[in-house]
Write a structure and sequence with these properties.
The complex is a heterodimer. By secondary structure, chain A is mostly helical. Chain A has helices at 2-17, 20-39, 42-71, 73-80, 86-117, 124-151, 155-183, 190-198, 201-213, 216-260. Classes of the chains: A mainly alpha, B alpha/beta.
């Protein structure tokens, strides 16, 4: 465990030196601050920030995670010649990238809401669900980045795959679900569509936040189904649990790959 | 003492090690020699646990090395081309590795001076020359009082002063009882350091013995030519050869 912490500390400081995390935090500060200041409506600001969460976080987490993975590959080799266990090195490295990214989002988005709440009433639960969803999405996509990196010796290939995953989950997925619904509208497809949303962490985070808003019109078909069939609370819990699985699974697969990897 | 038993490793279609068994004795420098791509580095990385063998076992001082980080506590490794994080300074790297292991061994300052690294301590690793990186790597290798030294082309890129000092240090550790495993294509280095030779060809051990025995067996006094003869297969080495080697003079053709 202490090995993990030391590797994490190193990865963290290394990430800080590249300034990307700072820029990333400032970006969320500016975006959320601007939305709150000009829109003057907390719920609206949450919705707009949610769209950033769904697009920007996965992309940045994939790119920074992968960049860190390849950049430190040789150094990891040196670390592994020391008497340290592979799983603790992997977990430390992952945490050292994923946690700062999640924190950057939570701080960058949370601070403007806290400041806004000093003078206005806001729905704290809604903001917390947004922060939680964004943090979880950061963890999911950093884990995917590490896993893709481990599975591919070649950096360019892994980058291409990462972009493919991002496009598939953000754009293509919605289109496919819609297409499926149109094709199969004559049949009872609620179960299938709900299952489909569990397969997409981005959709899950959307459901998690919109469930709090009770804005069925904004949830899309999958979200509306969650709300109708499971109710807001159960729906949110199911979405949350599925997101946690989405963090654990790629971390677990990455761990297995890392244990067997030849350096 | 390092013992490898029936190590096999395959990278895709390429079978790099085909059942390599060998024992590396303490207090001896054993050179692993063989043509490029004969599996030398893979063998070393298997011993270090960097490469996970498909079958076979590695034992370091009686402890199985597989999934056993503690077995690497007394192993020092000098890679062929050390690569360090660009942003760290030399002193920060030493700090990090000591922190990681939770050990602050005496002798860091002495090693820094020995390899003349003091003027470079505050430079980022990315600006260091290949030779200086190699010296940094040497300090890390010897810092934790290793009982097993694994040196992959250790003096590549070192100037004559540093290279001699490295060799002196290796011999000192050997005399103190360390197990030293070395690869090198530099014949003078082999000649100066080596006690035993493990000759690898296409992933199998073709010969284990002494340099003198190779000279005698190939009929070449110059080591480079003798080894070249082995590599090209001009001199066939079979199991019988090994027996002949132990005799004072062997006629083998």
């Amino acid at each position: 465990m202490s090995t993990s912490l030391k590797v994490m500390k190193y990865a963290f400081f290394d990430l800080m030196r590249s300034r990307w995390v700072l820029i990333y935090t400032l970006f969320f500060l500016a975006a959320t601050g601007g939305l709150l200041y000009f829109g003057d409506d907390a719920a609206q600001a949450v919705l707009s920030t949610l769209n950033l969460v769904l697009l920007i976080i996965p992309l940045v987490a994939l790119m920074l995670g992968m960049n860190h993975y390849y950049y430190t590959r040789d150094f990891v080799q040196l670390i592994l010649t020391q008497p340290v266990s592979r799983p603790s090195v992997f977990l430390g490295q992952y945490a050292g990238v994923a946690l700062p990214l999640a924190t950057a989002f939570v701080v960058g988005t949370g601070v403007p809401f806290v400041v806004y709440s000093l003078t206005h009433r806001i729905d704290a639960g809604l903001v917390l669900s947004l922060l939680g969803a964004g943090a979880l999405v950061s963890l999911v996509f950093t884990a995917l980045a590490f896993w893709l990196g481990l599975a591919n010796e070649e950096r360019a290939r892994a980058l291409g795959l990462a972009l493919g995953v991002w496009l598939a989950l953000t754009v293509v997925y919605d289109g496919l679900v819609l297409y499926f619904i149109v094709l199969a509208q004559a049949y009872p497809i609620e179960g299938a569509v709900m299952a489909a949303s569990v397969l997409n962490p981005i959709d899950l985070s959307r459901i998690l936040v919109l469930m709090r808003l009770d804005a069925a019109a904004l949830m899309g078909y999958t979200g509306a189904l969650f709300s109708t069939f499971l109710g807001s609370t159960t729906g949110a819990l199911v979405a949350l649990a599925a997101l946690v699985v989405w963090v654990a699974a790629p971390v677990g697969f990455g761990l297995l790959a890392f244990r067997r990897k030849n350096f | 003492m390092v013992v490898v038993d029936a190590l096999s490793k395959r990278f895709g279609k390429l079978e790099v090690l085909k059942g390599v068994s060998a024992a590396f004795a303490p207090g001896k420098v054993t050179a692993v020699i063989g043509p490029n791509a004969s599996g030398k580095t893979t063998l070393m990385k298997c011993i270090l646990g960097l490469v996970v063998p498909d079958t076979g076992t590695v034992t370091i001082d009686g402890e199985p090395a597989r999934d056993n980080p503690a077995s690497r506590k007394a192993v020092g490794y000098m890679p062929q081309e050390p690569r360090f994080p660009d942003n760290l300074k030399v002193s920060e790297l030493f700090e990090f590795v000591q922190d990681l292991r939770g050990e602050r061994p005496a002798g860091l300052d002495e090693l820094i001076d020995y390899f003349e690294l003091r003027p470079h301590l505050n430079k980022p690793l990315r600006v260091l020359s290949g030779g200086t990186k190699q010296k940094t790597s040497a300090v890390l290798t010897f810092l934790f009082h290793p009982k097993v030294l694994i040196l992959d082309e250790p003096s590549a890129g070192l100037d004559p002063v540093a290279s001699s000092r490295l060799k002196d240090r290796i011999l000192r550790e050997r005399d103190l009882g360390a197990t030293v495993i070395l690869t090198s294509h530099v014949m003078s280095e082999l000649e100066e350091l080596t006690d035993e030779v493990l000759f690898l060809l296409e992933g199998t051990v073709r010969y284990a013995g002494t340099l003198d025995a190779i000279r005698a067996g190939t009929g070449e006094r110059r080591l480079e030519r003798a080894i070249a003869k082995l590599m090209t297969g001009e001199v066939r080495l079979d199991d019988g050869f090994r027996l002949l080697m132990s005799e004072p003079r062997g006629e083998v053709a």
